[in-house]
DNA sequence: GGCTAAGCGAGACGGTACGTCAAGTCTTGCG
DNA sequence: CGCAAGACTTGACGTACCGTCTCGCTTAGCC
């Protein structure tokens, strides 16, 4: 019933993550400081440090709070179409604002913070890989994929080119690009054996 | 007449880059400071700022000075074998010390410094891609590759999985892993058409 | 039935003051924090703030609890001897541990906390001055002191040199020093009139 | 020729001390922070820490810069009159703004910073004591003082009561008070021997 | 003897300042 | 005149306490 209630726990956590995303979008992750997040969120610095051990950890949580549901896989029975739909959705998330730029920054951070790298894999990459593998396994059992196809490599082969475009060449990551990659992968590099 | 003569120009440039690599290996790129490089190299900070606009630019130059020759492509006539050899060499460079850790850090830096990203593409990724495409084109003309194979995508498809392993999952990048990826790519994901 | 029963009122007050003295001795008053006292005493910070408005007030109470009886004046009929005895006792208290260092710190605190200064005068300096003046008045009435002797100044003249030694020069405050001061004061600075 | 020249060394030192005195007067020493001095002086914190190891050391230098000449002793041949004049001057300095409040704070600081105490004695108390003793010695040689008078105690006996009033009772330190003290000291406490 | 009100420990919270570090700019004086 | 040396302002770091606050638990005191 107070006019300016001193809120606790989850309230503060949420406000800090929201502010992190706001500031991150406005000034870019590189210039983002915990000091500035605290000031903008009306929080004490200690309140942030109590929750997150590093800027990377804060960003990771903030970012994942944007995608709590995760990316779900459709299963229409046509693996090629389903993969296309799912990867289109992934690309829309990864490449677009606000997720995209901050996600790239987070991967940058993961290069010198092993804990961020581990958490990123465990909480984002891993679950997505699991779903991908599960869907591909079903397709393989139905004969839509080559029986020899190595499911462990699926994530690297399917996602690698996207991350290459996102992180290295930094050219636009479009649906059309995804489609070309998928076509090439389904066909294979070598000449078709049957002729 | 001094015992440590005040050297100029290229001497200073080289000494600073060498020190950057040394310090980068010792304390990690994240903790690398221009201040520390200057102190260790016996150089004034101004001498560094006169040559490089940012830490990323300094690291890029320092790193590329390790691989001035670039990675050359063999051409034995067998594209599958040549690719394998070449990518093994690339992986040996990228994943091993001292290049690996600093290279990963550089890609991290490229996520928030567009100039570093541009220079990285222009001076390292691009040339490698050109060589790869040239070798693949020759192979395609000889019928060793599918005529439909999209050469523009070659670098993303071949390198993407490696960078995914290097940057995202951060698991060891071995020859055996490369071989499995290449096998899968040559075969293609879909079931073989001949049946 | 608890092994560490949650005690109330005076128990807590006493425990907090005892802890204050302990910690003050161990780490020095300057580094003493209410946070640390609370933690060591197993008390909540609020329990301390409920009783004392400031660190100075807490220290004052803690310190005076060491000397609840006060310093009593002997009256043997010989004022010079009685003064000597009494000031020796005062010096033993003021200069020795644990009282001395904390007492000095308290006077330091009194320089920027008027409430501490007032309380210090009211509860420690004042009563001692009253006793001193009363004893001196008796001596004056008995002709042992000059009739012109200004009793109001007695405390300043007798104690001033001691506090000077304690607070300013910070050299040892010994019985021998006190004796020399008393001798000089009884004699006076000027040349003796009788000659 | 620049409009806002970046000044060095002594300029910065002087500006910081001046700001320290200003801020100290405005908000009081207890609330004085190095952060605030730096901000007000337009100086970096490091520039302050480079020069002074602590707040006390900064205040000491700042304060002594107000009284670089020191308090000089007159010598008219009449020691009682000269002492009176000199102590009046000392009291005017010690008790009045801006010196007084900051000087009290400095003595407070000296209670838990031995280095401040040492510097205070060496640079302020000591020189004043030396002058006092020299003047008193001359007077003693001329027969104006008791030959037995212990010159080593002079400073404590003469100044002690003033510091007692300044630091402990914190009542006004007036010329009239000084005069009463001096009268009492010259006379001595005991009854006059001539009777 | 059960109920309520207060005291209490614990510690989260918004703040302020600490003392350190490095960034990037500048000045000085050597060679 | 390029350089090393390093002083300078700026800004962020991560830590320590401040004094206020909320949270449940315990304990007294009053019905």
From TrEMBL, chains A, B, C, D:
Residue ranges of DNA binding: 33-52
Domain of life, source organism: Bacteria
Protein keywords: DNA-binding, Transcription, Transcription regulation
Pfam families assigned: TetR_C_11 (PF16859), TetR_N (PF00440)
Domain HTH tetR-type: 10-70
UniProt key word Transcription: yes
Listed SUPFAM superfamilies: Homeodomain-like, Tetracyclin repressor-like, C-terminal domain
Keyword DNA-binding: yes
Gene3D superfamilies xref list: Homeodomain-like, Tetracycline Repressor, domain 2
Name under which the protein is recorded: TetR/AcrR family transcriptional regulator
